[in-house]
Design a protein that fits this description.
One of its GO terms (biological process) is peptide transport. This protein has 563 residues and is of the alpha+beta class. Helices cover 24% and strands 19% of the residues. The strands form six sheets. It has a six-stranded mixed sheet with strand order 14-18-13-17-15-16. Strands 9-10-11-2-12 form a five-stranded mixed sheet, sandwiched between helices. Helix 11 links the parallel strand 15 and strand 16.
Length: 563
């Protein structure tokens, strides 16, 4: 899912992008809380592309990043509703708004330090934000460029050292953000890693992605294609961090895309597998019934629902005919897709892009898919036939982009079968999962349908609708890789309504506006929501502290330890 907000491309990964904290709250998968010490092993299906906080885009990247990087605020690390609340992280509190939510002030805590022992200062926060404007690399999270005043023509610090006037330091500990519009939930926004501090002297631009300078409980000791090794940061101070518990002495992240083998190893839980957790993939479908029906296995699986949505984006530039897009929505067989993924444990059927867990959710089903989970191919065929008669035929061959992984290909096969029923041939474009989101993040990509998913950065429609559907955020620079509006929807009326919703200061009114926008976008058939996702991650017998954090739809890494 991207996030971080786009949901991750992997079956249970998620475009996210929110940086959450961690604790020992509710250690559900074991009778006792984790102990301090030892080495935890974490399996990921593909190597995270970005660790640079200004470039972090997916939920997996965000989950790993917060081991290294602290932000002004962060999310509580507790199961349930509390996990959607923020607390001060580097800052003493969640922010102090003024001037009708157009100005936000934060004060840094005493004795917060980098991995070399130097203090983290306001200047580091300011520089971290400013470097996201530099143009030296693509930045996935749009919030700094969207919300900060006087940012339209700002070229970043790499072009002569210019400063951004809307980020000001009164002294080493006090920072002020001036916004271009009222933002009532800006305290949540600065929990995003794009607002994380970076010391200017340590900035290696592209090289910072390989080894960012640590402010969190761990620093990066090794970073290769097959594994990353996190060891303790001796200058991280527990007294300044009430969220992260940092139980293990070492965390080893290893890449293994063979999901059935990973699941089988964790079920058997021999040797090192006893200390291992699968982070970004659900239990392999052929093992699901065994896990959920065996009390011992079910007890150590880390499972839960969250606000993530698996969906297909429909490229509205390449498929410009609205009725042709509607035909694709009507024809989609959600039952076949979910069955191949493992059944109802994978998720509930979706009809909207804002999930039911969010207060901004509006319950609607424009294409009657909840009552027709196998699709309505007859309606799709009529729409296509009408367009043929009108001299505007729908394409009979389309390209679907997916991350090139075995389990994703299996699910993509159900999509191929679905559209064969209405005479459309689907060509699969398998993309290296390590670079998948960078490839589809180029607006010039030549795909008609794009495999995607989204976890909101915080629990509001403002973390769903603007990043995914505000056409003003589509990058225009050639070769850009940071687009998250995969449908390339750029509707002026929808863009204006997004601005109006962001400016609404009364929460209940804003929730209503986001729900109405969700429905308005559905009318454009820009996406096909498939399932509201659930997680079922397997853990070894020695893993403790696991719960699914809604900010990335994965086990909260900082809560994990050993028995």
């Amino acid at each position: 899912m991207r996030r971080r907000r786009t949901i991750i491309a992997t079956i249970s990964g998620l475009v996210l992008l929110a940086a959450a904290g961690c604790s020992d709250a509710d250690a559900k998968n074991g009778p006792q809380p984790p102990r301090t010490g030892g080495t935890v092993h974490v399996v990921v299906s593909s190597k995270p592309t970005h660790l640079d906080p200004q470039r972090v885009a997916t939920a997996t990247e965000a989950n790993l990043s917060r081991l290294l990087t602290r932000t002004l605020t962060t999310f509580r690390s507790e199961p349930g509703a509390a996990s959607s609340e923020i607390v001060g992280d580097l800052a003493t509190d969640a922010g102090r708004p003024s001037e009708g939510n157009r100005v936000w002030d934060f004060q840094l805590k005493d004795d917060v330090r980098w991995e070399d022992g130097t203090p983290i200062t306001c200047a580091d926060v300011k520089y971290g934000v400013e470097r996201s404007f530099g143009g030296a690399f693509s930045v996935a999270q749009p919030y700094a460029k969207t919300y900060l005043a006087n940012a339209e023509n700002y070229a970043g610090p790499y072009s002569g050292g210019q400063e951004l006037s809307s980020v000001q330091c009164a002294d080493t500990r006090n920072i002020r953000f001036t916004l271009n519009q009222p933002i009532g939930d800006f305290g949540y926004t600065v929990a995003m890693s794009v607002f994380a501090p970076v010391p200017a002297k340590q900035d290696t631009k592209d090289g910072y992605d390989k080894k960012p300078f640590a402010s969190g409980p761990y620093k990066l000791q090794e970073n290769t294609e097959q594994q990353m090794v996190y060891v303790r940061n001796p200058f991280w101070n527990r007294t300044t961090d009430s969220v992260r518990k940092a139980y293990p002495d070492k965390i080893v992240v290893q890449v293994n895309g063979d999901l059935p083998t990973v699941t089988s190893n964790l079920i058997t839980s021999d040797g090192e597998n006893a200390d291992t957790l699968d982070l970004d993939k659900n239990v392999a479908p052929n093992f699901v019934q065994q896990v959920i029906n065996d009390p011992a296995l079910s007890a150590r699986a880390v499972q839960g629902s969250y606000g993530g949505v698996r969906y297909l984006a429909i490229n509205t530039k390449r498929i410009a005919n609205l009725d042709c897009r509607k035909a694709l929505v009507y024809a989609f067989d959600k039952r076949k897709f979910r069955a191949a993924a493992g059944g109802s444990v994978y998720g509930d059927y979706a009809t909207t892009m804002i999930a039911p867990q969010l207060k901004a959710h509006k319950d609607f089903d424009l294409y009657d898919s909840a009552n027709n989970v196998e699709g309505k191919p007859d309606v799709a065929l009529k729409l296509m036939d009408d367009q043929q008669k009108a001299g505007k035929p729908c394409a009979n061959t389309l390209t679907l982009s997916i991350p090139d992984q075995k389990d994703v290909r299996r699910l993509a096969a159900t999509i191929v079968e679905t559209y064969q029923q209405i005479g459309i041939q689907i060509k699969i474009n398998g993309i290296d999962p390590n670079t998948y989101f960078d490839v589809i993040g180029n607006p010039a990509n030549a795909n008609d349908l794009l495999w995607a998913g989204w976890i909101p950065d915080w629990a509001n429609g403002s973390a769903v609708i603007p990043p995914l559907f505000d056409g003003r955020l589509i990058p225009t620079k050639a070769g850009a890789t940071n687009n998250q509006d995969y449908a390339l929807l750029n509707n002026p009326e929808i863009n204006d309504q997004i601005s109006a919703a962001l400016a609404e200061s009364v929460p209940d009114r804003q929730y209503r506006l986001w729900g109405e926008l969700d429905q308005r976008i559905a009318e454009q058939a820009a996406t096909i929501p498939i399932v509201y996702m659930k997680a079922l991650r397997m853990a070894g017998t020695n893993i403790r502290g696991g719960f699914i954090h809604p900010q990335f739809g994965q086990p909260d890494l900082c809560a994990i330890g050993l028995a």
